[in-house]
Design a protein that fits this description.
Rossmann fold, 7 strands, 7-stranded mixed beta sheet
């Protein structure tokens, strides 16, 4: 995969320790991690990646790059380009569905992983059926409504009531960079196919779930994760969907301890 095929904006930050790829959720950006970066840099080197049509990433016209399996290929291309042998990965919401998939496809490249609340990652057939039936409607809202259509979506960051004002404002600023056509392609070709529920039991890397326990919608997926992901570690916080922002201190303590526990520092040798 060439540089032009990667499509994703990524930034390698300074830090002390192994690399950790961090992937935000739908309608978010690298600003998702603003309250976490300083803590993580004490134990790792963050690589912040932005989803297609989000932040500074491209929004390809064709469908192929939006396929979740193509995303996995892009993550691998980034890893190789940065000369990283193995790394940690962390996904939030939509991003979690992609990082969990990446760990399933390339466990030999993942030291350990972290994920947070995600409706899509472990979605059951009922949810997926509903989502597939409304995917085209959502896509057309993006294509016809443009930037204003984005603001109509329930998950638009400006509607988030639980977030600290500064964090919300940063996400709203980056929401100006969202590309409606690319979001339409995301609704068509990414979202309906994100779930790794059927494969969850095959997870072969150490896995930490930082659980925003106040989000009731995530509860069935939380219970499924506990029952099916082998040796899952859970840290719960009294927070909602964006647990890494709403309970930043708890998230930061959990992720840094997890990295320190699993860091064997074999990630420095370039391939």
């Amino acid at each position: 995969m060439s540089d032009t095929d990667i499509h994703l904006h990524y930034e390698e930050l300074d830090g002390d320790g192994p690399h950790i790829m961090m992937l935000h959720g739908m309608l978010s950006s690298k600003a998702q991690w603003d309250l976490n970066i300083a803590a993580i840099q004490k134990v790792a080197r963050p690589v912040l990646v932005e989803l297609l049509a989000h932040g500074r990433s491209a929004a390809p016209e064709d469908a192929e790059p939006y396929d979740p399996e193509y995303y996995v290929g892009m993550f691998e291309a980034i890893r190789k380009k940065l000369g990283i042998e193995t790394w940690f990965i962390c996904g939030q919401s939509f991003g979690a569905s992609l990082t969990l998939r990446y760990a399933l496809r390339h466990p030999e490249r993942i030291i350990a992983q972290v994920f947070t609340n995600s409706s899509s990652a472990l979605a059951g057939e009922e949810y997926l059926k509903t989502y597939r039936s409304t995917a085209e409607e959502r896509a057309q809202l993006m294509e016809q409504g443009g930037k204003e259509g984005i603001k109509e979506l329930p998950i638009f960051p400006g509607r988030a009531k639980r977030l600290p004002i500064e964090a919300r404002d940063a996400l709203v600023r980056d929401a100006e960079l969202l590309q409606p056509r690319g979001l339409a392609q995301t609704f068509r070709y990414s979202s309906p196919y994100l779930s790794v529920r059927a494969e969850a039991a095959n997870t072969a890397v150490p896995t930490l779930l930082v659980h925003g326990a106040a989000e009731k919608r995530f509860q069935p997926n939380y219970e499924y994760a506990v029952a099916h992901i082998p040796n899952l570690r859970v840290v719960a916080a009294n927070a909602g969907h964006a647990v890494n922002i709403e309970a930043a201190d708890i998230f930061n303590e959990a992720i840094t301890a997890w990295i320190e526990e699993h860091n064997h520092d074999d990630s420095k040798d370039p391939i």
